[in-house]
Amino acid sequence: MISKPRLFSNLEYNGVNTILTQIRRISGFRISVPSFNAIKIASRRLIHSGTLLICIALLSIMSCTVPTSNGVGSPRPTIPSNVDIVPSIRTRDAPPILGARYIKTLGRTGQGAGEFLMPMGLVMDAYGQLYVADAGNNRVQVIDTNGNFVAEFGSFGWREGEFDYPNDVALSLDTIYVADTGNNRVQYCNLINRIFYPITPISGDLQFEGPEGVGIGRNGEVYVVDTLNHRWVQFSRNLAPGLAMGRFGNNRDQFWNPTDLVVNPYGTVYVVDTGNHRIVSYDFSGNPTQAWGEEGGELGQLREPKRLAIDTWNYLYVTDSGNRRIQVFTSEGRAVIEFTVKTLLNPCGIAVSQKGQVFVSDTDAGNIKVFQVIFKQNSTSDTKDVE
Q: Which of 1, 212, 273, 362 allows an S-S link to 227, with CB 3.0 to 4.6 Å?
């Protein structure tokens, strides 16, 4: 404890000692009484003019670094630039869905820019562009939400960067993955250099046969729906093989020609079991948790479902191809609504924007149908419908 300078009042003296104690505790440095008194004399003069900048500066300087054992301060760590942005897993109450309405159709049958032959899976990027597996044209085509051509990848063949009836696409940051079904492989490339490479299983029992679906997990894992092997396979973000789940059959852990999957923010995997007319879910460890759906045309029943997508509220959108409609389910499997349009012939791929627009590839019609989902939003003052 320093002796009280005659210059200070009791209140000022107590405050000085409190600051000194904090500085000594944080830094381990000793401040001599003369130098401290000199600082305080100058500080009191500044106090008289209405500022406490010196005291604040002292405390802020001492808190900018954390002293190490050798007395050298270590700067605060910075966030690495390669950290992924992943969906939030905080619990939110999903607004009820009132219905959906048809808006417009994108594209037409053909081989030119913005035209399609048997479009299959599709996905939307962060800029609102659609990547479409244009299976009949053996390419991936990129369009905007108005149907304007942006770019294309690939042509028919078996070499890297070529495709044979591609069925699905997925995006992970700046990397695109393509289910190259006819070539029994999945290819990927960086969208900057556009050089394609195959995902190469390291063992014979992980060879693909007719893979039709590909998806991305919460932490960048790559999931492949190995259709004719009746299973799905998980790879790490570095493409090291991991889980391989399923075999032929109709039990909860078996499949009959699965075609697609999606992973929610909690790591739950939802698989479209096309031949068994149902959806099967797995937890993040690969344990089957539930299954819903049976063959039929009623709400909640399915007939050859093809693909599914998940929105920001964790609603699941399933293309019920045999019934020529789209059905929406909760994450627990409860059917919510169904919607369609008379011109929808064979719905296949599906993607949902953050604004609730639903894009559905119509394989037989050679185009993409667009719908708008209508949510009910409640507020403290009134209730209104939002799109």
A: 212
C-alpha span between 182 and 186 (Å, rounded): 10
DSSP codes, 48-99: HTT--HHHHHHHHHHHSSEE-TTSPEEPPPPPPTTPPP-------PPPPEEE
Q: Left, alpha or beta for 147 (phi > 0: left; psi -120 to 50: alpha)?
A: left
- Taking alpha carbons only, the member of 27, 33, 52 closest to residue 42 is 52
Contact indicator for 306, 325 with CB cutoff of 8 Å: no
The pairing of strands 115-116 and 108-109 is: parallel
Residue 33 backbone phi and psi in degrees, to 5: -65, -45
- The pLDDT tens digits for 332-359 are 999 999 999 999 999 999 999 999 999 9
126-140 tens-digit pLDDT? 999 999 999 999 999
pTM of the predicted protein model: 0.76
Ranges in the chain, pLDDT < 50: 1-9, 11-13, 16, 23, 26-27, 29, 31-36, 38-39, 42-43, 46-47, 49-86, 379-386
pLDDT of residue 62: 39
Rounded Cα distance, 167 and 177, in Å? 11
What's the pLDDT at 88? 52
Residue 182, by phi and psi: left (phi above 0), alpha (psi -120 to 50) or beta?
alpha
How many whole angstroms separate alpha carbon 249 and alpha carbon 306?
A: 18
Distance CA 367, CA 263 (A): 26
Q: Between helices 10-27 and 33-48, what is the axis angle to 10°?
A: 130
E strand or H helix at 105, and its extent? strand 97-106
User: Rounded distance, CA 67 to CA 46, Å?
Assistant: 30
**Cross-strand partners of 260:** 272
Q: What angle do CA 303, 309, 312 make, to 5 degrees?
A: 140
